[in-house]
Write a structure and sequence with these properties.
Elements: H1 2-11, E1 13-14, H2 35-45, H3 55-59, E2 63-65, E3 87-89, E4 98-100, E5 109-110, E6 123-126, E7 132-133, E8 155-156
């Protein structure tokens, strides 16, 4: 089991990014490029039902479960505005190719099977705050891009 997990860990691209302020937007969904993710966010996070997900509403979110839109999801662009996100679950999001969680600095663990079955996932950028990755978190993610030197070591860039 450890060998399998280390193999997947070695394929992850870890990026050390300093904190930077996100541009202020009236509606977090306006920066998204995936209509399924946008609709999911409106349905679940527009608390005051004004047709927008404000930065304050996005900041109140700690968990996102993409499995309800798994078949349609292709992009998580805009997820960086969910600054208090501590957990994300995207199992079986088969068409997801790239995930950048580098601005989601409250995530400390990638949960068990969080991205399992994301067959097309090539790259995931995790924040430095991630200190553990659960069992099977990246099972059946066959297209990961290796770090700079193509070794099975975790890379921080």
């Amino acid at each position: 089991m450890k060998k399998i997990l280390l193999c997947f860990l070695g394929q992850l691209l870890f990026v050390g990014c300093g904190s930077s302020t996100l541009p202020k937007v009236d509606d977090v969904c306006s920066v998204m490029d995936d209509i399924s993710f946008m609709r999911y966010c409106y349905a679940n996070f527009d608390v005051n039902e004004d047709g927008k997900v404000s930065m304050a509403e996005a900041n109140a979110v700690s968990f996102i479960d993409c499995t309800v839109i798994a078949e349609k999801l292709v992009s998580l662009k805009g997820i960086e505005y969910f600054t208090n996100l501590t957990s994300i679950y995207c199992e079986e999001c088969e068409n997801l190719t790239f995930v950048d969680l580098s601005k989601n600095e409250k995530i400390t663990k990638i949960q068990d099977e969080a991205f399992a079955g994301c067959y097309e996932l090539e790259t995931i950028i995790l924040p430095e705050s991630v200190s553990s990755i659960g069992a099977g978190a990246f099972d059946k993610c066959y297209k990961f891009i290796y770090g700079k030197d193509n070794t099975n070591r975790m890379q921080k860039h």
